[in-house]
Amino acid sequence: MRLKMEMIKRFLPTPDKSFFLFGPRGTGKTTWTQAIFEGALRIDLLSPEVFRRFAARPERLREAVAGAPHKKTVIVDEVQKVPTLLPLIHALIEEKRGMTFILTGSSSRKIKRTGADLLAGRAVVRTMHPFMAAELSSRFDFERALRYGLLPLAWQAKDPDDVLRAYAALYVREEVQAEGLVRNVGNFSRFLEEISFSQAGVLNLSNVARECEVERKVVEGYLGILEDLLLAFRLPIFTKRAKRAVSVHPKFYLFDTGVFRSLRPCGPLDRPQEIDGLALEGLVAQHLRAWNAYGGDRHRLAFWRTRSGVEVDFVIYGPDGFWAIEVKNADRVRDEDLRGLRAFREDYPEAKTLLLYRGQERLKRHGTLCMPCEEFMRGLVPGRLLETWL
Questions:
Q1: Residue 2: what pLDDT?
Q2: How far is CA 257 from CA 43, 94, 239, 245, 282, in A?
Q3: Which domains can be identified in the chain, with CATH numbers?
Q4: Contact indicator for 83, 74 with CB cutoff of 8 Å
Q5: CB 271: neighbour CB atoms within 10 A?
């Protein structure tokens, strides 16, 4: 099956001013900007020839803009490759020519170091995520999403396995190695494999460093690179008005379930059910993250874990609601599956509790709504309150 990305409407809201659009490669940034801003002046820095021209002489941007006075929208793809363009873009915005600049990027590392302060207040920041189930609508296939993730580049490929296998290598070659982000590319590649074992788990960098046979501070640097490349994120612990001792370490997630599976080694000693469970939790995490981002980042996403090991996978806290969500890779709900949610509600009676599972029917157990995971994903729409449809 092959879908045309331009036929799929994304939930990303369109700002009414200049903006950065960050997102990992393959999430559809270029396709979205082409569809929304037809006829814009486009400068694609992924093109070697274009990159050389603008890297050698950033002032060419002013000339390009002056040469197309009828074009009021300028798109610079992968702007992090030539961050010296940012002061010039800042100046052009300040000149108030009625122009809108859309600056896409698959890495925020150089932007943070050289340009974020220059455009502060002049350009907002938006993020593009993998597909959400509701964006795909009837084309969403839950089992396929669990296996291959929802990265548009892989979702629409004839052979998603091939695309996903090459995905991490592309980043290592074109972002990490080419930009000289690490001294030892081999160590970083081993780190990528090893960090996949931390998916949906409490992050212990000392353990990761030991397995990689490098110092902890090296792993901390590698993790920072991974986050700057937008390939991973950490979920903080929920500590507001904590009534009992809670964990201090965050949880770790790769940004897409398919990318996680492509990095996670599998062998005779690995249980498929365990990897499926991690993939399922990651799929829910990426949906919640996109839902919150596209809805204006109104909520805080976290998880809850006590020192004794009682845990809730996700906590959503914000002006529009307070939810605790547990994810189970099982087709039946057992009372013990609700242990974490019940403990959370004891400490936070204001919270609503939800359990997502692989079954087919909605249930109400001990005050907790239990619903099929697929139904939850299909109904999750940015700007739509959970209370209005759960």
A1: 38
A2: 31, 41, 27, 31, 6
A3: 5-127 (3.40.50.300), 133-388 (no CATH)
A4: no
A5: 9
